[in-house]
Design a protein that fits this description.
With about 260 residues, this protein is mainly beta. The chain has one helix and 17 strands. The two termini are about 20 Å apart. Keywords: Signal.
Length: about 260
Amino acid sequence: MIIRPRHGLQTAAWFALALSTAALAQAPAPPSPAGPLTLPGPDLVTPWYNGAFTSIGTVQYCLSDPPIFATRVMGYTGFSHPPPDFSPAVGEVFYTHLVLGHPGNPCTGSAVGIELILPPGMQTAVSADNPVFCFSMVPNPSNHLIDLDTDADYGCPTTFPQGLEGLAVRPLRGGLGNSGAWGMAMGFYLEILIPVRATQVQLGNQSIAWRVNPDVGVVGYPQVPVFANGDVVFRDQMENTLLNLDLCTLDPLPQGC
């Protein structure tokens, strides 16, 4: 599995608008229930099927007087699928991702706890060929993309211990202050991509959800209905499958995309 930036698509303006207005994006039509018996392997670009935006918490802008309030964190989740609109098959590895933005401006930023909540009949599928990816975009000194797997304080998780409601998604090297949380502040973005597989057919009546906890007692659940068909799939080798990175749809385009 290969990850690559995703340039110049409409979702850039779409995400920016949602962060500034707290508008909810409508989910697209679900993928078709069955995939073709064969798909080209090299350079297969898998699109995302994303759910709606979720706003999580309200916060007062730092030192604002009179007080100005804004959404603390907002984001969405989705899963990758064979193009153009086919669903993954049972047993096939695909990815779920969480994309978060931080429009709020608390004085101390946010320590964001994250958990992945998979429905019955789904499991994580991390391997050497299908690792976890984690990236952030920070606004200062300029908008630039950071591969958190190479960061001395972070690193992408490789295992997922049980959390409060789901699988804890904690930075490999401890994260913010070695707390297991992901540090964010105003203008920060975060995208985490985790490989998963279905062990039974998924008809869209269950969802992949993420538990996002940016402050004490503040919790939100971005989610997306999940689809996986039960066909026997004879797809070609997919070692050159490409994942799009939604952070690289932001406008202006982050450096490093």
